[in-house]
Amino acid sequence: MSLAMISDITPLKESWKIKVRIIRLWYQPDYNNPNITGSIEMVLVDEKGEKIQASIKRTHIGRFENLVKEGCCRLISHFGVVNNIGKHRATNHSYKINFF
Question: Which residues of the chain have pLDDT under 70?
């Protein structure tokens, strides 16, 4: 599988592999219980400077938390791509990455 750029990413394809740097990472509280973490949110950037938001839901935090640190570069694959909707978007990209 060859490397894709963030600008190429759409939900129309199921198998992506991208090389990115995590330029921003934060823990988002759960909507119903602000005392627990609902997700880890990140902004990823590729070598062309394109950005996309990524999310690790609460059920997968234990699996990925030690692998994601702000400033780190990662090759990532096996993720979902969904529409980036909502009032608070961290990037202008039309889509968002969800890790599973």
Answer: none
For 51-75, the pLDDT digits (tens) are 999 999 999 999 999 999 999 999 9
Number of Cβ within 10 Å of residue 25's Cβ equals 17
Reading across the β-sheet that carries 51-57, which strands appear in turn? 73-77, 17-29, 37-45, 51-57, 95-99, 79-83
Give 10's contacts (C-beta < 8 A, 6+ positions apart). Answer: 81, 95
Tokens of 83: 């529409």
Of 13, 38, 24, residue with least CA distance to 72? 24
Largest CA distance in the chain: 41
What totals of helices (H) and strands (E) does the chain contain, helices first?
Answer: 1, 6
Contact (Cβ atoms closer than 8 angstroms) between residue 99 and residue 60 = yes
